[in-house]
Structures are given as structure tokens and as C-alpha cells.
Amino acid sequence: MNTLTNYKHFRRFTWLLLVVAVLLCVWRFHRADTLLRRVAATQFSEQHYYTLWTDSNHLADTERREQAYDLIERDSDRIASEAENAREQADDIDYYLHVHDVKDEGFEMIAAYKPTAHRRADSLTRLCENIALINGGTDYRIEHNVRYLAINPVTPPNVRILADGIYTGQLNKQGKAEGHGHFKGNDGSYYEGNWHNGVREGFGFAVVPNKSLRAGEWKDDKYLGERVNYHSERIYGIDISKYQHFHGIGKKKKIYPIHWNRMRITHLGNMSNKIISGTVDYPVSFIFIKSTEGSSVKNPYYAADYRAARRHGMHVGTYHFFSVRTGAASQAHYFLANAYLSKGDLPPVLDVEPTRQQIEDMGGVKELFARIRTWLKIVEQRAGVKPILYVNQTFVNRYLPEAPDIKRNYRVWIARYGDYKPDVRLAFWQLCPDGRVSGITGNVDINVFNGYRDKFDDFLKNQTIR
């Protein structure tokens, strides 16, 4: 009886195993068929590439040697250019993070991209170094390889392969980019940030070959600029001349004193739409005072204002208004004869505001920058620090590219009164000419330092007159 029962259980178990095996085969066949269908629906691109190995024990044939050197000669300049551009992009990322912090929109997103930027720059730099080692006396061998890349592979639901690159991120019902996402272009470009209906919209940052970092507000796929949020943690200052002491001319001229002990910034002007958090009631952390103009004009209030500002604990700098009518050397010596350059003062400033006609009359842009260089060098030798160049955004766009050495070696203070921050590296930004300061009658130029308290402290420690 027990033997018969065991035999029946054995048969049932055997049939069960057989059924499971059949089902497993059907499932595996179905899965394999699905994969084969996907592979059949996928187009592949065949790519040939060559690896160049240096090897002292192997000598390639003459024909391949010449082919390799032709290839290196043709591509080395291109790769060197890409490496230089990648290094500039990595430097742009570093600079952005240096003058921003976590309070600024998009800071953490850009910080997360920093390692990628540096890896690309380092990789291209090493490639350039290796190419430079390959010369006419180097032995090598060439290894030929073939690889196949899927042109239209099955992609995850949040990925879109487009003609000009690959998008990964959120999508709307129509399958277009919507919300947060990033795009890697076929040309090496990269964008990460907000999208709307398939185009860049809102905050985002873009890294594009041969262009500087663009981080800020986008609309209809166009970059508008960085919109600054003004709040009490930023570092504000002013610049003044004789016009903060009187208003009107002739019999209508009225003189007003400056009440230094009451000085607070209370309004950021009306010439642009600003994002302001909290109440505008900021201390004056720094002040630039005009001392001279050309080689014969002095600000009669300069000496008294300079002493009063230092007495009230402000960080003080002195500026000279550049004239196209007199020589640069004479202007530099006139400035040095009349300006205070005390220990701890902010760097001296050259204020350059010529019209297009004035530049033409003096001999053109090259002559203008030759004179600017003369003034900067003379004053730098005397002050012991590099002066700051004050210009407006139009000057930056139209003329500064003609003087890359000045743009590279000197800090810039820019007057720009629009909605967006100047898109160049700068020390200070004059954000309005119609601000209000308690203790001063009338309009006042309001400026903001490009960075927060820790960066301003570094600036005071390392960039001021010693």
C-alpha cells in the first residue's frame, strides 16, 4: 500500500516538474523573441577607430607610420583647442561657485556639475600631452577596432533622443521636456535646469563650446541673464563726487552736508525690476570717492569726504575720471599727486566713459587702450596693487574684447542698470544711479560686491593697498 502511494506521488511530482519546465521554456522563448524583435527594430552604426600604442619593441610599417603622423598633425590642433576650451569652462564653473553660495538659485546644481567639467578638461589635457610625446623618433603600433552603436535603441520613458542630442528628465503628456531635465548636445554642449513645452524656460545653466558659462534665467529657449536676489547678506556700497554735496547751478545752487553717522542705503533705484527680499536698509560697507579728472580737475570735497569715511569705519577707495584730451601719463601723475593711497584702502579706480566719437577723435580703440594701459601701469607701480577698471556694459561688449590682456589681468567694475547681472567676471557692479542713502541728499550710485561676506573679507585681506 505504501509503495503504491509513493509511486502515485512520484508520478504527480514528475508531471509537475514537466509542466514547470515547459512553462519555463515558453517564457524564455517569448523573452528571447522579444529581445530579437527589439534588436531587429534597432539600427546600428558601424564605427572604426584606431588605437596608437607606443612600443619600443615594435616598429610599424612606413605607410602606417605616415598615416598616423598625418592623423596626429590634422587633429592635434583641434584637440588642443578643445582642451583649452574645456579648461576655460571648468574655470568658469569655479569662478561662479566662488562668488555665489547655497543661498543662490541653482548653486547646488552647478556645484554637482563641477567634477564633470574638470574630468573633461583633465582628460583632454592629458591627451594633448600624450600627442606631444609622439614624434618622428617614436616607435608605435596601430590597433584597428570596430564597434557598433545603436542609432535608435529602446530608451527609458524619461529619455528623448533628438537630432541634436539626448534629453533626460521630466516630460509632459505630449512627450516634450517639461520641468527639470538635462540635455547633452552632439556638439559637446550641456544644459541643465527648467523646461517648458520642449524649450528652456526658467532657471538653468548651459556649458557651450567657445562660450562662457550661462547661468540664470531663460525664456523661449533664449538666455536672458542672471537675475540677482537682493537681501541683507550681500555687500553694498556707494560712490560719490562733488554732486552729492550740491544741487542746481548759479543762484539756484544749494549746498547740502553729508551726515556720515546716519548713512544707510534705503532704496535701490527705479531703473530696473529688482527681486528684493526683506526691507532695503543696508549698511554702507565700502565707498569710492572721486578725486581727479584729466590732468587739471580736482574734486574740492575729496579730502574731507575721504577722512570722514575712514573715521566712520568705511572701506574707502579713490577713483580718477579718464579724459581723452590729455596724456595718460600726465593724468596718472596728477591722480597720484592728489589721491590718498593709505594702507588698507581699496584699489584705485580708473573711470573710463568715452563716447564713440571721442574714441574716433583720439585715434581709435587701439590708442584708447594704449593710454589706459599707461595709466594702469604707472598707478600700479605706485600703489602696489592692480587698479580696477570702471566701464559700462556697452564698453564691455563693444571694446573690451579688443584688449584681452586688460580683461584678463585687471578687475572690472561695471555700470549696468538692467534687470540682469553683467555677464563678465567683475569685482563690483553699479546697479543703479538713482538709489537713496540716508544722510545724503538726492540720488546716489549704489554698488554691490560680487560675492558674500567671506569673499569680501578675502578681497580686503589680499587685494587692498598694503
Which word captures the global form? elongated
Main structural class:
alpha/beta
Q: Are there runs of 5+ residues with pLDDT below 50, and where?
A: 38-42, 56-62
Total of helices: 10
Give the tally of β-strands.
23
Oligomer: single chain
The N- and C-terminal alpha carbons lie at a distance of: 109 Å
Query: Over the alpha carbons, how many angstroms does the gyration radius reach?
Result: 33 Å
Q: Give, in spatial order, the strands making up the sheet with the most strands.
A: 11-16-18-19-20-21-22-23
What does this entry look like structurally?
The chain is α/β, with parallel strands linked by helices. The protein has helices spanning about 1-40, 60-100, 105-135, 300-310, 330-340, 355-360, 365-385, 395-400, 405-410, 455-460, and strands at about 45-55, 140-150, 160, 165-170, 175-185, 190-195, 200-205, 215-220, 220-225, 230, 235-240, 245, 255, 265, 275, 285-295, 295-300, 315-320, 350, 390, 410-415, 430-440, 445-450. An eight-stranded mixed β-barrel has the order 11-16-18-19-20-21-22-23. The chain has a seven-stranded antiparallel β-sheet with strand order 3-4-5-6-7-8-9, with no helix packed on it. A two-stranded antiparallel sheet has the order 1-2. A hairpin with a 5-residue loop joins strand 22 (about 430-440) and strand 23 (about 445-450). Helix 2 (about 60-100) packs antiparallel against helix 3 (about 105-135) and helix 5 (about 330-340) packs parallel to helix 7 (about 365-385). The longest helix is centred in the first third of the chain and has 39 residues, at about 1-40. The protein starts with a helix and ends with a helix. Mean pLDDT is about 85; it is low at about 40 and about 55-60.
